[in-house]
Amino acid sequence: MTESFLYAAARTPFGRFGGALATVRPDDLAATVLTGLLSKVPDLDAAAVDEVVWGCANQAGEDNRNVGRMAVLLSGLPTSIPATTVNRLCGSSLDAAMLGSRAIETGDAEVVAVGGVESMSRAPWVLPKPERAFPPGDVVAVSTTLGWRLVNDRMRAEWAVSLGECNEQLRERFGISRERQDHFAARSHQRAAQAWADGFYDDLVVPLDGVDLPRDESIRDESTPEKLAGLKPSFRPDGTITAGNASPLNDGASAVLLGSAAAADRIGRDPLARIAGRGACALDPRDFGFAPVEAANSALRRAGIGWGEVGAVELNEAFAVQALACVDAWLDEGLSDAELVNAKGGAIAVGHPLGASGGRLLGTLAARLRASGERWGVAAICIGVGQALAVVLENAGTGSAA
Predict the structure, then answer these.
(1) CB neighbours of 49 closer than 8 A, spacing ≥ 6?
(2) Is 395 helix (H, G, I), strand (E, B) or coil?
(3) What is the rounded CA–CA span in Å between residue 300 and residue 391?
């Protein structure tokens, strides 16, 4: 088997729910970021892209009917490029990258564009079809923005509780205080704001025509633990999870270009990182926030390294409490420093447009490794209904990956 490499990454700025990107269709977001990705490799003939693998969690509205293929068509790429759309909820675009890298490693493809999109603002309301014609009662429209909908009556009730309630239970299990959560959340905003000010995201983020959004819209520069402490709990009257220490609802898209080592000449640049290991984990649906622990451990085993060798971690911050639980577990297993996690801010600040977040993590991780010179990094994401994914990257600039 050959090896797969990450050559380029791009994403849109992430908009807040009902914000600057709310007027942009998800298929247009996807097309914009796909075009932006390929603009970073001008020597690559677009017809040489063997396949597009795209992630999207909703697919109930304008993102229906294979939004990956819609992105290919709307971006003006050759119609000969096949595309598929995958759905692993929050992990959809990381799953897309894992599938694309496997296609390269097995020899089924040389160059694959992967990514994901989500417009949580434009997610539609849906109505169930009636069991019989002309029902006399009312019908309730269900929002598809986030969480369970149209739940099967046979599903165990404790599995179908809200994502927030799941994480309140996780907080009780690990004894993670409200104070720790608020400090973690404030740190996410402060680091994201600093990263933007330092220009870290300048080469990663592509603009959208006609949209005035110079950076991620959910970042609050003035956020402090003291301010966050004043927010009311969102899921329990006596709970600890608030709108301030959980990720917001967002719109956005991300993309990553993968290729074999032999594709470097065709792409016209050296790779940034090697896909060194992949991992997946599934737990009881209520424990989804803790699933990244074993997903990352599995990816590290497949890469042949341990936590002590990891120099950068990108962990999706669905909730501060679940991120803290994962980091605590990794510190116990050999991660050298919690400060290695989300050094450029995380989803609490940057945002979490579900299908786009995995691609954001990979692109940010590759850029961090390149900037720091560290050899190994981990990207991990929790997924509703009890799953998680993780990918290990090896910095191609260390001389050990290519």
Answers:
(1) 38, 77, 81, 111, 112, 113
(2) strand
(3) 8
pLDDT, tens digit (0-9, with 9 covering 90-100), for 35-72: 999 999 999 999 999 999 999 999 999 999 999 999 99
260 - beta bridge partners? 4
Count CB neighbours of 243 within 10 A. 13
Closest CA relative to residue 72, chosen from 109, 100, 114: 114
| Residues 389, 102 contacting (CB under 8 angstroms) | no
Question: Residue type for 56, please?
Answer: C
- All structural domains of the chain: 4-123+248-395 (3.40.47.10)
CA–CA distance, 6 with 197 (Å, rounded to integer): 26
C-alpha–C-alpha distance, residues 29 and 325, integer Å = 33
pLDDT number for residue 214: 96
**Gyration radius (Cα) of the chain, Å:** 20
- Residues tagged active-site: 90, 352, 382
Question: What is the spatial distance between Cα 69 and Cα 27, in angstroms, rounded to a whole number?
Answer: 9
Angle (CA) 224-225-231 rounded to 5° is 100
How buried is residue 93: exposed, middle or buried, by Cβ count under 10 Å (0-12/13-18/19+)?
buried
Tokens encoding 312: 């950068």
Rounded CA separation 288/352 (Å)? 16
- Amino acid type, 384: G
The predicted structure's pLDDT at residue 148: 87
